């Protein structure tokens, strides 16, 4: 089994959004890495005030290539866990035969799965931006509260927005929408086990989209599962109750990567921290 986990953040966020998961998994004895996307290895203040010009042309393929190179340098195949657009990156990495297991949390989806009406509405501010294909764009606080983290109070949403949200490349949204660099082999027998996790109230990537992707991946004999958390928004990786999401993802992944029944058990390495043993 692997004891290494790679966390992949989504658009509008930095690896800091993974801090709760990272600390929890490390407390259980796992080695956890959460590398940033290309051009985003900078302090949040700089990302907001002066985004790297390279972000303007950052594409899905460039992001996937970036993580593939990082995985290739690791001593063992990691468990891959991605949120939102990071969940889409996980699907592409598994499609390339990478990773010991993958978990896609509230993910964007590959070409072949149509967006729901709410998801389309949440993406319109990007897709309707003039020359958005070649621009670095910013999500508004209003958009964050409406489509990303609507289960938070006004004060909680403002705090999360100021702490985590940064500009993102518009190009990846256009690519996902029209199917450029976003195809996978649904029937691949070489793919590692894949779990989709969805939030019932997600407006950015609706549960029906993750279910549809899971059905398409089930064309293969490779393992694919789906789990939906009631009452949760797109902000699953850092919203209240994130511990439940973190534990479910890790226990599932460990079950896929070990044949030892004993290692499937949940234990408490620290008070209030129930995760799978390394």
Give the topology:
Layout: E1 4-8, H1 19-27, E2 31-33, H2 44-49, H3 60-72, E3 79-83, H4 85-95, E4 101-105, H5 117-127, E5 136-137, H6 141-148, H7 154-164, E6 168-169, H8 171-178, E7 194-199, H9 207-217, E8 224-229, H10 242-257, E9 266-270, E10 273-276
Helix pairs in contact: 1-10, 3-4
Strand order of the largest sheet: 2-1-3-4-7-8
What structural category characterises the helix and strand content? alpha/beta
User: Into how many domains do the coordinates divide?
Assistant: 1
Order of helices and strands: EHEHHEHEHEHHEHEHEHEE
Number of strands: 10
For the record, what CATH class applies?
A: Alpha Beta
Q: How does CATH name the architecture?
A: 3-Layer(aba) Sandwich
**CATH topology (fold) name:** Rossmann fold
Helical proportion, percent range? 25-40%
- Percentage beta strand: 15-25%
Which labels suit this protein?
alpha/beta; Rossmann fold; six-stranded parallel β-sheet; 10 helices
């Amino acid at each position: 089994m692997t004891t290494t986990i790679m966390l992949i953040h989504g658009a509008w966020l930095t690896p800091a959004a993974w801090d709760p998961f990272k600390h929890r998994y490390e407390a259980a004895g796992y080695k956890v890495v959460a590398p940033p996307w290309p051009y985003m290895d900078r302090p949040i203040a700089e990302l907001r005030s002066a985004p790297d010009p390279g972000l303007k042309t950052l594409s899905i393929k460039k992001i996937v290539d970036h993580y593939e190179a990082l995985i290739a340098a690791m001593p063992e195949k990691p468990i891959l866990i991605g949120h939102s657009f990071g969940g889409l990156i996980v699907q592409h990495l598994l499609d390339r035969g990478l990773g010991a297991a993958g978990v896609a949390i509230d993910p964007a989806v590959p070409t072949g799965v149509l967006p729901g009406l709410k998801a389309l509405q949440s993406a319109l501010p990007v897709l309707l931006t003039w020359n958005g294909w070649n621009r670095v764009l910013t999500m508004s606080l209003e958009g964050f509260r409406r489509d990303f983290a609507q289960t938070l109070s006004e004060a909680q949403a403002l705090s999360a927005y100021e702490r985590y949200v940064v500009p993102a490349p518009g190009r990846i949204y256009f690519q996902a929408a029209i199917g450029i660099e976003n195809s996978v082999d649904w029937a691949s027998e070489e793919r590692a086990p894949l779990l989709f996790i969805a939030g019932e109230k997600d407006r950015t990537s609706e549960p029906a989209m993750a279910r549809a992707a899971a059905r398409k991946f089930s064309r293969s004999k490779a393992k694919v599962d789906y789990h939906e958390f009631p009452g949760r928004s797109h902000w699953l990786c850092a919203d209240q109750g994130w511990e439940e999401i973190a534990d479910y993802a890790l226990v599932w992944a460990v079950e896929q990567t070990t044949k030892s029944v004993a290692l499937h058990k949940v234990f408490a390495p620290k008070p209030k921290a129930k995760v799978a043993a390394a």
